[in-house]
Amino acid sequence: MSHTSLIFALPGAASSVGIGAAAAAAGAGLAVGVASYYAVQQLRKDYQEALCAFQAREQAHHLALAVTEQMQHEQNAEAAAITAETTARTAEDATDIFLRQAMARLQTDLDNLPKPDPTLSAHCHLLLAEIAAHPEQFEEHYRQYQELLHTLHAIQKQTQHPREVALEELAALRAELDSPLLAAAAPTAKRRELLQQLDSLEVLVQSQSSVVEQGIHLFRARVQREVLDAVRMRDAREQSTQEMRALVGEILAKVTALSQTSLADYPARADVLRARLMAIITATEADNLTALQALGAEVSAEYTASERLLTESANADYLGSQVSDVLLGMGYRVTEIPAEGDAAAATYVAELEHGVGFQFQVNGEGRMGTEMVAFSEETAVMDVANQEHVCQVIDKVLAELRRRDFTVKERFRRTMEEGHALTVIEPDADVAHPHLHAAAPKHRKVTGS
Cα(29)–Cα(434) distance, rounded to whole angstroms? Predict the structure, then answer.
């Protein structure tokens, strides 16, 4: 045997969640596997803690207090800034002000009637209570307000001059146009047009008060549409803001976890992603939800990739440590050559008798490859007896792993002809006792036969 290829399945569950318990149960000799397993768990823990911290700040009753508190913690300073920015983008909820001002004018007009109607006043007070209790039902409350207003105008027309009634209606419409709801929502050009129409109606009332009623009716219908459109736009902006807050929390939590992982390059990538997040949040564009969604997808891909790398590293370390543990139990020295790079797998070298042994690698998918090696130039030429001895040792290792409930499937085993040149490994001369350690033996190939 010169080369073998094997596939392992972990005992019990094949997921990384099962690795920790299994590795811990195997004893102190599997410290490497346990450390890799906990690296995966730490990534997930950092993500959950950062997400919960962001959500807690969002739920704070006083934003200023929440920001001040978080700014005291250096690691959360960026989260505090993001929280302040996203909250500042929430559109002012002017609907409550709009309805309360409108209802106050209505109540005053009802009280000023020659014969106040207690039923209308009671209805007005009831509607005010409904507005306070259910501010989200604006459209229904606005409809009821319009019904009360229509009733008021009908009563006024019975007791007042048509010009006075028309001027009072126009004054109420001007108050609605000047309210925070429409002043902030209507574009400048549209608002100017509405005010010009209102001015024209006020002039027309002075000269033709008997024919202006239809114009006021049409103008009121348009103002009503503008009010409802403004509310719907405000609701859409609020929904967009809530989505942005959720996205910011998710992105920030994953970036925080990436910045603390042991994987090479990922902390630097996290810094770049955090800077991009801050740039989006502080941008002057009114709608940057699309940019946040794109960044969120990119951050999620980075987080998933890092989680996969850590999981595969945990799997490989655990399986490698299990094979090493079996060899150590058989009395052989096993040396680990640490992996170079996040995606690389560690190499283990087992020293057997007669100056030969084998090296093996296990990847995160449970695949292990072995190669027969020599530890001196004198034993670097393939010997059938030595090859058979290495094969027997590997068979014993596989038998022990199966006894430990590993599923082992051998893909192939390739033998070499006698006289074939083996890879020569110069072992660490400082290691006197057989144990698992992190040395780096030197490799070189013997070219002679």
Answer: 12
